[in-house]
TrEMBL record:
<feature type="domain" description="Aldehyde dehydrogenase">
    <location>
        <begin position="3"/>
        <end position="269"/>
    </location>
</feature>
<dbReference type="InterPro" id="IPR029510">
    <property type="entry name" value="Ald_DH_CS_GLU"/>
</dbReference>
<dbReference type="InterPro" id="IPR016162">
    <property type="entry name" value="Ald_DH_N"/>
</dbReference>
<feature type="active site">
    <location>
        <position position="42"/>
    </location>
</feature>
<protein>
    <submittedName>
        <fullName>Aldehyde dehydrogenase family protein</fullName>
    </submittedName>
</protein>
<comment type="similarity">
    <text>Belongs to the aldehyde dehydrogenase family.</text>
</comment>
<keyword id="KW-0560">Oxidoreductase</keyword>
<dbReference type="InterPro" id="IPR016161">
    <property type="entry name" value="Ald_DH/histidinol_DH"/>
</dbReference>
<dbReference type="InterPro" id="IPR015590">
    <property type="entry name" value="Aldehyde_DH_dom"/>
</dbReference>
<dbReference type="Pfam" id="PF00171">
    <property type="entry name" value="Aldedh"/>
</dbReference>
<dbReference type="InterPro" id="IPR016163">
    <property type="entry name" value="Ald_DH_C"/>
</dbReference>
Amino acid sequence: MSGKALALHMDVAKVCFTGSTEVGRLMMVYAGQSNLKKVSLECGGKSPQIILADVPNLDDAVDATIAGIYANSGQVCSLGSRLLVERSIHDEFVKRFTEKAKTAFVPGDPLDPETTMGPLVSQSHFNTVMGYVEKGKSEGATLLFGGKKPQGFDKGAYIEPTLFDNVTSNMTIAREEIFGPVAAIIPVDDADDAIRIANDSIYGLGASVWTRDLSKAHKMVKEIEAGTVWVNCYGDGDATQPFGGYKQSGHGRDRGMGCLLSYTQTKSVWLKL
């Protein structure tokens, strides 16, 4: 309610909103209904992590990919929930990912320093994420691990790290933002196929590319529709790097000089003496 009140207020000149694409649309409507205030939006994401056969180090890619989806229990808009893996390394990637993910992110008490994965934000959101898990199974994806409450955590909105394989771009779990620890592996034929599938989304917040070929990396960075593209890493950066999305992931940027400029107005003055 406070966001709506601010966005409709005639004395507010700028709104910067982070949240769902659905509410982001409303912020623009409210701006139009009031004083045409500036609106910056950082909304949903369905970011691809692309692992090609010429990956410099597969173990490094696996580690970064795991952290790139399961960190904060998957509750980060820019996390890479679509894993686009070249077919020739698919089986080995799945093997290593499965071995490491089960020990890297273990659900537990958030107050325990040993815990690497806390609960989801609410029971309601837990039900939403579990609904996506059931949707993935019913639409034909292969559940490799997870997809349920961990043992000993009947109370609380806990869900195990979850991985689906044999996912296609038309499946719900490949198209809609789940905002939970649910990853979907989509096999790809090559870099061009990966670009096509990466862009087959209403979202465009982040992406990663793992390749040792610099020319291929430059081509993919240019053609992938995302506000941030990481090469041979995921989530790296600092306060100087602008952050924001393409398409229905929003517009405008956080951080960097562009962010500061979005809170200013340009005034032209022509003085005749």
